[in-house]
Amino acid sequence: MVKKAAPYFTPASFRFLRGLAKHNDREWFAAHKAEFEEHLRQPYLRLIADLAEPLRKISPHYVADPRPVGGSLFRIYRDTRFSANKLPYKPWAGARFFHERSRELMGEAPVFYLHVQPGENFVGGGLWHPQPPNVQRVRDYMLNNPASWKAATRSAAFKRQFELGGSALTRPPRGYDPQHELIADLKRKDFVGTAYLDDDAMLSPKLPKILMQHFARVAPLVDWLCGALDLEF
What gap in Å lies between CA 78 and CA 150, rounded to an integer? Predict the structure, then answer.
């Protein structure tokens, strides 16, 4: 008998996250930490490990790192030092699949990303909150390579599932032609493509295949951004 593949996330994973969203305090988390480990953290680390080889087929320079500390998985704990929001935990779980040179660039490299949150799951890729010098590099690369930018972000395959998002300037950036055909994209401060996934997809044992299909479709954007920052893809 063929053993049926086990899902990574289960209804218990989502029950934990819903509970955390409702009771975001240290006492509740301490009482439910075993559920966090069993139903969210350990399955997520297993998923990351299982994505490592498929991700290398998209780009040998991108890493799915399953280490519990310092790897692809974000910590559940929020950094509240400089935030008015003092809630201690994130009511979601996220992982970034990063470029092998990301650390030497202080994180200033495009990533693939997965966000797990009941009713708000999404997968994406791109460059999130880059520093001004790298925003400038991307904009200048866009000016010099408009056709490849449009190919990466306006293809039928991309637009079927992804949309460009993130923050943007309200006015054209200084020094750029307000009438340029790509002015809406030149105003961007983030360069990310996002696709939402329903809860059933996240609970499916076929989740790695679903994710890799999405990563493959957003890969041209990640590839283009690597070119803008002189990174290998």
Answer: 36
| Nearest CA-CA partner of 142 in 129, 151, 131 | 151
**Dihedral sign computed on CA atoms, order 227, 229, 232, 233:** negative
The whole-model pTM stands at 0.94
H or E segment and range at residue 116: strand 111-116
CA pair distance 233, 230, nearest whole angstrom: 9
Provide the 3-class DSSP secondary structure of residue 124: strand
Provide the residue-wise pLDDT of the chain in tens; the chain has 233 residues: 555 678 999 999 999 999 999 999 999 999 999 999 999 999 999 999 999 999 999 999 999 999 999 999 999 999 888 888 899 999 999 999 999 999 888 889 999 999 999 999 999 999 999 999 999 999 999 999 999 999 999 999 999 999 999 999 999 999 999 999 999 999 999 999 999 999 999 999 999 999 999 999 999 999 999 999 999 99
* Dihedral sign, Cα of residue 113, residue 211, residue 219, residue 186: negative
Handedness of CA 71, 72, 74, 79 (dihedral sign): positive
Encoded tokens for 79: 């950094």
The label of the residue with tokens 């969210």 reads 40
CA distances (Å), 50 to each of 30, 65, 136, in order? 29, 10, 36
Q: In whole angstroms, what separates CA 201 from the centre of its chain? A: 16
